[in-house]
Design goal:
alpha/beta, 3-stranded parallel sheet, two-stranded antiparallel sheet, 5 strands, 20% strand, globular
């Protein structure tokens, strides 16, 4: 997986994210994962993204009330929830 593109950025405690999470009104896949599994999850969602799928995932949002509200909103709006168990 090439994570050295201009869209990639380093997030403390997670590592280098493969691409920005989707933000828009088109259908998207919601991905939930434990940060300890980020490397395996990022490899898979990067593959899906390159195939043209819109992917929303936690790309470094700080825990707290805003985090919970954002997660609930994204789950409510998504078309294809995916729970990672890598």
């Amino acid at each position: 997986m090439d994570l050295k593109s201009s869209n990639s950025r380093l997030i403390s405690g997670i590592g280098r994210i493969p691409f920005p999470a989707y933000r828009g009104n088109e259908p998207y896949i919601f991905v939930s994962y434990a940060h300890k599994n980020a490397e395996a999850v990022f490899a898979e969602i990067n593959r899906w993204n390159k195939q043209g799928y819109n992917i929303w995932y936690n790309e470094g949002i700080a825990p707290g009330n805003e985090f919970i509200s954002l997660l609930l909103l994204q789950v409510y709006r998504c078309n294809s929830p995916v729970r990672g168990t890598c």
